[in-house]
Amino acid sequence: xxxxxxxxxxxxxxxxxxxxxxxxxxxxxxxxxxxxxxxxxxxxxxxxxxxxxxxxxxxxxxxxxxxxxxxx
Length: 72
Fold this sequence. Notes:
Layout: H1 2-8, H2 11-17, H3 21-32, H4 37-50, H5 54-71
Helix pairs in contact: 3-4
């Protein structure tokens, strides 16, 4: 979701460049407050490793949370 990128002023990019993915994943966990942290962490790692693209990340997390919402 774009809110993450707009609110952190590029912090995600710096964390990614430093290869500190755990801190990045923690920030996603806190932002979305998901009950399924393992799923969120796995998806965040895969998506950032493959793309690190805001548009793709936004679409990816929109789909992920739609799927999670439908299962609840």
